[in-house]
Amino acid sequence: MKKWAFVSDFDGTISKKDFYWLVIETYYPEGKGLYKKWKAGEMQDIDFLSHVFQSIDQHEEQIIQDILSLPIDEHVPSFIKKVQENGGDFYILSAGTDYYIHHILKHYGIQNVPVFSNKGYYENKNVHLSIDESHKHYSRRYGIDKSKVISDLKEKYEVVYFAGDSEPDSHPANVADLTFAKDVLQELLKENNVPFVAVESFQQIEDFLHEKGTI
């Protein structure tokens, strides 16, 4: 069994902005109404995202340029290296799509980071999701069941840390050994009596793990 792994959500946790908001603000203002319907529980998460990602209508060069304009937590690349140098494996776990995540990782020179996410591809000026309903991590609501991924990783590692910021992250937080929570995830975990460490940045996560002697 391996010693430890650090698993992080992407949108709003590694990135400072969700990719779907960038798309809505730049190309699809009608998406604000769709966002309200989704938040009111009238749409599944994966249906909302699929609709937004198929409303970009731009050539791939432009979409990639937009992806690379997403601001990320500046400390993430060095934090990932620290994890890897100290015997840990780093994973990204996202209910968005691996399409934009891989572009970001490449852009920042981040290597050896497996991505668990919904498969995405460019076609006809938009980003499409390819959801495999027979996959063991499949979720009707999110496309990917984050808690199942964490459960699988817990069979390989002695300790699994998790970082997230929003509602989809409340489920894997129940399974991880320790969760670092940003933004609304803090309130959700409080309400459900799930223990967590409140953070605003990866620098704070690193400081915590440094104090524990993990890195």
* Fourth-tier CATH superfamily name of the domain at 2-15 and 74-116 and 143-212: HAD superfamily/HAD-like
Number of strands: 9
Question: Uncertain segments of ≥5 residues (pLDDT<50)?
Answer: none
Principal-axes shape call: globular
Give the DSSP E fraction (strand runs of 2 or more residues): 15-25%
Number of helices: 9
Structural class: alpha/beta
Strand order of the largest sheet: 4-3-2-1-7-8-9
Helix content: 25-40%
Radius of gyration: 17 Å
CATH class of the domain at 2-15 and 74-116 and 143-212: Alpha Beta
CATH architecture label name of the domain at 2-15 and 74-116 and 143-212: 3-Layer(aba) Sandwich
The main β sheet shows up as:
7 strands, mixed
Give the averaged pLDDT, no decimals: 97
**N-end to C-end Cα span:** 19 Å
Oligomer: single chain
Q: Summarize the helix and strand pattern as letters.
A: EHHHHHEHEEEEHEEHEH
The CATH topology of the domain at 2-15 and 74-116 and 143-212 is what?
Rossmann fold
Fold and architecture overview:
The chain has a domain at 2-15 and 74-116 and 143-212: Rossmann fold (3-Layer(aba) Sandwich), CATH 3.40.50.1000. Strand 8, helix 8 and strand 9 (197-198) form a beta-alpha-beta unit. With 215 residues, it is of the alpha/beta class. The strands form two sheets. The chain has a seven-stranded mixed sheet, with helices on both faces. It has a two-stranded antiparallel sheet with strand order 5-6. The chain is globular. It has helices at residues 19-27, 31-39, 45-53, 60-68, 76-85, 98-107, 146-154, 183-191, 202-212, and strands at residues 2-8, 88-97, 115-123, 126-130, 138-139, 143-144, 157-164, 178-181, 197-198.
